[in-house]
Amino acid sequence: PRFRMNHRLQKHIPPIHHVKFHINIFSQTLEVRVVERTSFASVIAYPYNYIVDKEGIILNVNQHQDVQPYAAPPTLPIITGIPNEQLKKKIRLHRYYQHLLNDPISTLINLFGKKGITFNITNPKDIRVLTNDLIELKLGDSERMNDKLRILRLMMVDTASNNERVEYVDVRFPDYPVLRFYGAWAQPHPVVTPPRTAVVPISDNNVPL
Predict the structure, then answer these.
(1) Which of 32, 98, 124, 142 gets the highest tally of CB atoms within 10 A of its CB?
(2) pLDDT in tens, 93-126
(3) Is residue 84 packed enough to be buried (19+ CB in 10 Å), middle (13-18) or exposed (0-12)?
(4) What local confidence, expressed as pLDDT, does residue 113 receive?
(5) DSSP symbols for 26-55
């Protein structure tokens, strides 16, 4: 019964991550502990705004998968470029988008903080990010994303004292990263390229239609 109740609560109330039940035989009481999901990102898909957790679960839908009004915290990263048709009447993001976004969002939150990060994935082969400091980050496609994020981290640490002058960082080709300052030509950045890792790119065949 407890398993069925837990399952029903998760199904009908998406913000619930899980429920724990504890029976105290001495006081003859039932303790119920509800653990809620944590908002991870705000997905803007006109005309709606979907709030998702790190597992891609959409938190602001009811049991009929209708979007409910939700005052999104201003610190949540913003994701644009996902068609509303991919989210309408759904309870979670397609796993393609989930895998595409989780690592970059977590890395960029660590680098820049939550506030003001906007992802544009209109073209999944040319992912672009705008930070709160108005620095454009050109990530490209999902191939070698771990290497791209490592190099980006090195570049941003190296330029920490001059971030206000950075116009964009281009790691689309991680062996040849580029850093551009306002009023200057784009220059290859002399970072140490990490060894290639076994990153399996997300196939175009997995892109939801």
Answers:
(1) 142
(2) 888 888 888 888 888 888 887 777 999 999 989 9
(3) middle
(4) 79
(5) TTTEEEEEEEE----EEEEETTEEEEE-TT
DSSP 76: S
Contact between 84 and 99 under an 8 Å Cβ cutoff? The reply is no
pLDDT digits (tens, 9 = 90+) for 35-54: 888 888 999 998 889 999 98
Q: For the whole model, what pTM was predicted?
A: 0.74
Section 160-164 average pLDDT: 70
**Any bridge partners for residue 120, and if so which?**
80, 128
Euclidean distance between the first and final Cα of the chain, in Å?
A: 39
Q: Which residue has the higher pLDDT, 202 or 37?
A: 37
Q: Counting runs of H as helices and runs of E as strands, what totals does the chain give? A: 3, 11
CA Rg value for the chain: 21
Residues in Cβ contact with 65 at an 8 Å cutoff, skipping those fewer than 6 apart: 88, 89, 90, 91
Q: Which residue is listed with tokens 């209708």?
A: 66
User: How many other C-beta atoms are found inside a 10 Å radius of the C-beta of residue 181?
Assistant: 15
Q: Are 80 and 87 in contact (CB under 8 A)?
A: no
Strands 136-140 and 127-130, by their bridges, are: antiparallel
Residue 153: which residues within 8 A CB-CB, separation 6 or more?
107, 111
Show the tokens assigned to 5: 């109740």
Which residue carries 């988008």 as its tokens? 97
Structure token digits, residue 25: 């035989």
